[in-house]
Design a protein that fits this description.
Helix content: 10-25%
Keywords: Disulfide bond, Hydrolase, Protease
CATH topology of one domain: Thrombin, subunit H
Low-confidence stretches: 16-22, 28-32
CATH class of one domain: Mainly Beta
CATH superfamily of one domain: Trypsin-like serine proteases
Protein name: Trypsin-like serine protease
Oligomer: single chain
Pfam family, one: Trypsin
Distance between the termini: 22 Å
Number of strands: 8
Order of helices and strands: EHEEEHEEEEH
Structural class: alpha+beta
Strand order of the largest sheet: 3-4-5-8-7-6
Largest sheet: 6 strands, antiparallel, barrel
Number of helices: 3
GO molecular function: serine-type endopeptidase activity
Strand content: 25-35%
Organism: Gonapodya prolifera (strain JEL478)
Length: 182
């Protein structure tokens, strides 16, 4: 996968980048998902969606092994994976991670869930930057989570796209307009 362009949000700064909060879009030349037609997901604009306790799905190329706590220790898939998570209270993320209270409206807090077949779900090393979806809408971008993948008691932090939805839509409109000129 080759990155062909990066679009940085005008209010992005390195201080936030060091806290691992997403602030840019990347354009890639090609991604192959094994299907011919992919419909883009609508971008959520409601800062309260999804609601506390609702299930949500994260997609990514992160490590798939429990305890895959570093890039060197991880087992990585060839195709993106999907995992089910549950919306949690942002205060739990604030207690667990050194987040500033003024980030509350810009993040979502998710926890892994136990599945009937005896395994648990979580985001893992390498999932950062992947979409987080609920009810067919992209509401977030995986930011970071616990070092020990699969720790269901440690919340993961998701950047809410509602806080930057106008910028994302405007940027995508410009990119699409440029693409149609050529």
């Amino acid at each position: 996968m080759d990155v062909t362009a990066v679009y940085v949000h005008p209010k992005f700064n390195k201080t936030l980048a060091n806290k691992r909060i997403t602030g840019c879009l990347s354009e890639v030349s090609t991604l192959h998902f094994g299907v011919d037609n992919i419909t883009p997901l609508p971008i959520n604009t409601d800062r309260y969606f999804p609601f506390l306790g609702q299930r949500t799905e994260a997609l990514g190329w992160g490590a798939t092994n429990i305890g895959g706590d570093s890039y060197d220790n991880g087992t990585y898939p060839d195709v993106p994976q999907i995992t089910t998570l549950r919306m949690n209270n942002n205060y739990d993320c604030e207690r667990y991670w050194p987040l500033k209270k003024n980030t509350r409206d810009n993040v979502g807090c998710v926890l892994g869930v136990s599945m009937p077949v005896g395994y648990r779900t979580a985001v893992c090393v390498g999932d950062s930057g992947g979409p987080v979806v609920a009810y067919g809408k992209m509401w977030g971008i995986t930011s970071f989570g616990p070092t020990n993948c699969g720790d269901m008691n440690a919340p993961a932090v998701v950047t809410r796209v509602s806080s930057v939805a106008p910028w994302i839509c405007k940027t995508l409109e410009k990119v699409n307009a440029e693409a149609h000129k050529h």
